[in-house]
Structures are given as structure tokens and as C-alpha cells.
Specification:
The chain is α+β, with helices and mostly antiparallel strands. The chain has helices spanning about 15-25, 65-80, 100-110, 125-130, 150-165, 280-290, 340-355, 365-370, and strands spanning about 1-10, 30-35, 50, 55, 60, 90, 95, 120-125, 140-145, 150, 170, 175-180, 190-195, 200-210, 225-240, 245-250, 255, 260-265, 300-310, 320, 330-335. Bound molecules: flavin-adenine dinucleotide (FAD).
């Protein structure tokens, strides 16, 4: 039997599932998503992530922050309404300055950046102490009101269920064989996908690869400049409650949704020999955690560890666009450490592009690596 689809998306992480949602909304097309590891089987398996528009050591405003945050917020709210499970909260994010240089640079950034009204505010030492008692800081910190804490795998499980209701097919935990179409420019050939244990063959007009760092495993995408960066997190249980409702971002991030357990992360390992979490991760994270919240010493217990591999890029911007030679192959990868922030917003752009109603912005276009 042959089953035909307009789009076959490879990868059910933030990129693949967000894109399916946007495509379905923009044009009611047939979509199949395949993931041999299951929903959130890659970097999107991080138990908790932040939607943070003020990133990096000095809290720089991220690219297209306003529309990116508005999009993820609206996606989270929409998917949340389709399930009884709670997977996100508008917690806000406190970014205490850990030394004078950071405090100065953060304040300079704040003054020179045009932030949407009421999104961010500098807290003096006293204000910070009142709002976040015992949080280490030098000269105060940045309060990012428009920040969200998200249990990413739970969000994506709910998003996958939402998509299935909209007739998106999802095949998980099965390996498959992909047959590339001829790249003849005159002849449009479908992709063909087969599964070892099934008689059904899939035909797809367009292949969209959203396989995170594994995108490079496809021989026709092996030259993409995706850089693997391992990230580990530790999950702790608190003797009492986690002291703050807000997420904390300094020397890493520390965030809770249930008040009792919290996630502390993360490492940024450019050199690693295996993908699993290890003792290095625990030690690195706990050292940083106790620098920011020394009062938690002896009052928290490590209950779990997790690690994933981010797909970063040389300029730390995502890679979006058509394969230079295979015209019905499209790539959406390289989300680095901002997958939550960018996946929804870029998915909307890509969906409109497929409808000939927009362009891929130069900042993320795949062409920046294939030109010249
Ligand atoms: C520790 C850690 C903390 C993070 N914290 C944050 C945060 O706070 N905020 C934030 O915005 N971002 C955060 N990120 C980054 C974010 O998780 C990533 O940017 C995002 O998950 C990337 O999504 P993706 O869909 O591109 O890739 P992935 O999530 O890696 O998804 C790729 C999918 O493709 C599948 N796949 C693999 N091989 C194949 C194949 N051959 N065929 C089909 N499918 C395949 C995988 O199973 C996987 O499900 C964090 C990442 C890590 C590691």
C-alpha cells in the first residue's frame, strides 16, 4: 500500500512539532511526522526549559524577542487548553548580577535596548533582597517579567496529541529507510519512505528535516555546520519548598513548576565522549547552584539527571531553508539553546514561506553557509 503526504517531517522535537502545528494552521495539508526515538527524543527532552528573552551573561535581548515570546506564549496557551495537565507557568525570570562587571554591563544593555513596556526592570540590591531573599547578587539584578518556565517534554506530548486530533500522523519508535528523489530540476519526484516491519510505503512531496543534531547524519546534509554541545541538568528535591516562584538565571538556570522539585542546569560541553549524564555534570551544576543560592546547602537532594545534545551553529543562529541541490528537501535545525524561544516563531515564518507568502530571514537562512 502507498500512502501520500504533502509533508514528511523527520523529528518530533520542538522544531518538528511546532512546524507541523503552523503548517496545519496555514494550509490544511497532509503531514506525517516520523521520530525513531519518540516525542522529544533529542534536546527537547530537557525536563524544564525557560522562555527567556534576556539571554547570555549580560542579558542581551534576543533576536525578534517580542514576536518570538508572543508566539510561544500563544502556542503554550492554546495547547494548554487542550489538556488537563499543567506544563508551563509565567514565572518571570530573575537574573541576579553575580559581579560588578556583569551588573554594569546588564544595566548598560538595559538602557541601550528598546524593550517592550513592562517586560524588564532593574532591581536594586534592596529590591532584589525583598523580592528574592538570600539570592546572591552584586548591585542588584534584572527582573524579566515576561519569562516562562516550561516542562518541555510534557508540552510536546500534549502538542503531539493536539496534532493527532488535527489528522497529523505521527510514527514513533520505528526505524525507516529513506529514498532520495532524483535531483533533476525538471522532474519533481516524491520522497519514498519505508519501514522494515510494514508493507506500507510512504510517499511525500516535501521532506522537512528537523532532527536536531542528528540532521547531519543524513548523508545529503552532512556538510551543514551544526555543532554538538552537550547539556546536562540535575533534578533536585527540596527539603522545604524551592525558595522562589520565579526562575533564576545566573551561572545556569534553576526553575520549578511544582514548588517541591527543581531543575538546575546546565553544562555547555563542546568536547564529550558519550551522551549520557555523569558525575562531572552533577558537580559542575551543584557548584554553580550553591554560588547563587548558598542557603540551599544541605537542604536539597539530587533525584535525577538528564542530558541532551544541542545543535549549535557558527553564528549561533538557526539554519532554515531548502537544500541547495535537492529542491524538495527543507532543513529547520540549529536551534542551539533557544529552541523554546524560536521554534514557534520560525515555524510560522516557514509555513508562510511554503505558501509563497513570505521569505526566510537572512539571519537564519541556510544560504548564508552555501554562498561564496
Ligand atoms: C540541557 C538543555 C537545556 C536547555 N534549556 C533550554 C531553555 O531553557 N530554553 C530554550 O529555549 N532552549 C533550551 N534548550 C535548547 C532546546 O532544548 C533545543 O534548542 C531544542 O530542543 C531543539 O529542538 P529541535 O527540535 O531542533 O531538536 P531536538 O529536540 O534534538 O529534536 C530532534 C528530534 O529528531 C529525532 N531524530 C533523530 N534522528 C532522527 C532521524 N534519523 N529521523 C527522524 N527523526 C530523528 C530525535 O529523536 C528528536 O526527537 C536546552 C537544551 C539542553 C540540552
Amino acid at each position: 500500500m502507498i500512502k501520500n503526504y504533502a509533508y514528511c517531517i523527520l523529528g518530533a522535537g520542538l522544531a518538528g512539532l511546532s512546524l507541523a502545528k503552523s503548517l496545519k494552521k496555514v494550509s490544511n495539508c497532509s503531514i506525517l511526522i516520523i521520530d525513531p526515538n519518540g516525542i522529544a527524543g533529542g534536546a527537547s527532552g530537557s525536563p524544564i526549559g525557560l522562555v527567556n528573552p534576556a539571554t547570555g551573561r549580560y542579558a542581551n535581548q534576543t533576536w525578534n524577542a517580542e514576536v518570538a515570546v508572543e508566539t510561544v506564549k500563544s502556542n503554550l496557551e492554546e495547547i494548554s487548553a487542550s489538556t488537563t495537565k499543567k506544563f508551563f507557568k509565567k514565572t518571570g525570570i530573575i537574573r541576579p548580577a553575580m559581579d560588578q562587571k556583569i551588573a554594569r554591563r546588564m544595566q548598560e544593555n538595559l538602557e541601550s535596548t528598546d524593550w517592550p513596556k513592562n517586560w524588564v526592570r532593574w532591581l536594586s540590591v534592596n529590591e532584589l533582597e525583598n523580592k528574592f531573599p538570600k539570592l546572591e547578587n552584586t548591585d542588584g539584578g534584572l527582573w524579566v517579567k515576561e519569562g516562562f518556565t516550561v516542562a518541555i517534554p510534557n508540552y510536546l506530548t500534549a502538542l503531539a496529541d493536539f496534532l493527532k486530533e488535527k489528522d497529523v500522523d505521527i510514527i514513533e519508535h520505528k526505524s525507516f529507510e529513506l529514498n532520495k528523489p532524483d535531483s533533476s530540476p525538471d522532474e519533481f519526484q516524491n520522497w519514498s519512505i519505508s519501514f522494515s516491519d510494514e508493507s506500507t510505503t510512504i510517499k511525500a512531496k516535501n521532506l522537512i528535516v528537523t532532527a536536531g543534531i542528528k540532521t547531519k547524519d543524513f548523508d545529503f546534509l552532512k556538510d551543514l555546520p551544526l555543532i554538538p554541545v552537550k547539556g546536562q541538568v540535575s533534578v533536585y528535591e527540596c527539603e522545604d519548598e524551592f525558595p522562589y516562584d520565579a526562575a533564576v538565571s545566573a551561572l545556569g538556570y534553576f526553575a520549578t513548576l511544582d514548588g517541591k522539585t527543581f531543575v538546575a542546569g546546565s553544562t555547555y560541553e563542546h568536547k564529550f565522549e558519550y551522551e549520557e549524564p555523569d558525575d562531572f555534570g552533577v558537580e559542575y551544576i551543584s557548584n554553580r547552584l550553591l554560588k547563587v543560592m548558598p542557603h540551599l546547602k544541605g537542604r536539597i537532594k539530587l533525584i535525577d539527571q538528564w542530558s541532551g545534545i544541542r545543535a549549535s551553529t557558527p553564528d549561533r543562529m538557526p539554519i532554515v531553508g531548502h537544500h541547495p541541490d535537492i529542491r524538495n528537501c527543507f532543513v529547520f535545525a540549529g536551534l542551539g539553546s533557544k529552541g523554546l524561544l524560536y521554534s514557534g516563531f520560525l515555524s510560522n515564518i516557514i509555513s508562510l514561506y511554503f505558501k509563497n507568502q513570505g521569505l526566510i530571514p537572512d539571519e537564519v537562512s541556510i544560504d548564508r553557509f552555501s554562498k561564496g
